[in-house]
Design goal:
Elements (H helix, E strand, L loop, with lengths): L13 E2 L2 H8 L9 E5 L7 H4 L5 E5 L3 H10 L7 E2 L9 H4 L5 E5 L5 H10 L6 E7 H8 L9 H9 E9 L4 E2 L6 E8 L9 H13 L5 H4 L7 H4 L13 H13 L3
Parallel strand pairs: 2-3, 2-5, 3-4, 5-6
Antiparallel strand pairs: 1-8, 6-9, 7-9
Length: 259
């Protein structure tokens, strides 16, 4: 079959620069896993470079036209094409309890959701790399003190070391998006289990940034803090002023408060 037509409702922008595709494939360290799952391979511009590596490559693709194209053009992928939506996919169905890396040129319209889903699967995913809208990639890797530092930054960096690798021009896609793209790599921390209830940690971070202009004393009122705890100087700060470590410390204090 001929080329796949990009579908706007799926957020498809097909990368046409082979050297960039190779550079993205080369972001994988191949350390601590033997399998990789590419999300949204489209016509396989990135896939072909993954297939050259000493690793078992799987792809997951929701677009049936792309699945047909991959089946026709990449015989090495036979039996390794998962025709499903990654956001709803039960990863144990094909990978049991094995670790695997995630990679992809992610659709911009669901890229943050893909990251949140990967965080849910963090026990399984030692490495995650790929291409996002530039501002999203920057936000994920941002440190405290910035206006773009937010929920994604804190939650990702609590479990992974995040590195912004390079920027990609909008002109190397068909059709070209209206924004630049950024490639990042996340490598799971050696000790990625937090010394606090992780559900409470997620809840505190989200509550804090949902009212990011307020001090923590005001944005975290729902936790019914004791008067003593409210006097703690950490509650004078706004969420973007706290490092990941300080958010962990904050969660510990709220947990000790009896929430």
């Amino acid at each position: 079959m001929d080329k796949v037509k990009a579908k706007k409702h799926l957020g498809q922008h097909f990368l046409k620069d082979e050297s960039i595709a190779k550079d993205i494939a080369d972001t994988l360290t191949l350390n601590g896993y033997k399998k990789v799952l590419e999300i949204g391979p489209g016509m396989g511009v990135l896939t072909k470079y993954l297939l050259d590596k000493d690793i078992e490559t799987y792809v997951i693709e929701i677009d049936t036209e792309s699945v047909q194209y991959l089946n026709a053009h990449y015989p090495k992928l036979h039996g390794h094409i998962i025709s499903e939506d990654f956001l709803k996919y039960n990863i144990t169905k094909d990978f049991a309890d094995e670790p695997l890396a995630i990679i992809g040129n992610f659709p911009y319209n669901i890229s943050s959701q893909i990251v949140f889903r990967a965080l849910e699967l963090r026990e399984r995913i030692p490495e995650f790399s790929g291409m996002f809208q530039k501002e999203v990639a920057e936000r994920i890797c941002e440190k405290k003190g910035s206006k773009t530092y937010g929920i994604l930054s804190v939650l990702v960096q609590a479990f992974y070391d995040a590195e912004y690798l390079f920027t990609v021009s909008e002109h190397v896609f068909n059709p070209p998006p209206k924004v630049k793209s950024g490639v990042l790599r996340l490598i799971r921390k050696e000790n990625f289990h937090l010394p606090v209830d992780e559900k409470l940690f997620f809840s505190v971070v989200k509550a804090a940034f949902n009212q990011r202009r307020k001090t923590l004393r005001n944005s975290l009122k729902t936790y019914i803090l004791t008067e003593n705890l409210k006097e703690d100087s950490i509650f004078d700060l706004r969420p973007e002023q706290l490092s990941v470590e300080q958010f962990i410390e904050l969660t510990q204090k709220i947990a000790a408060n009896g929430v």
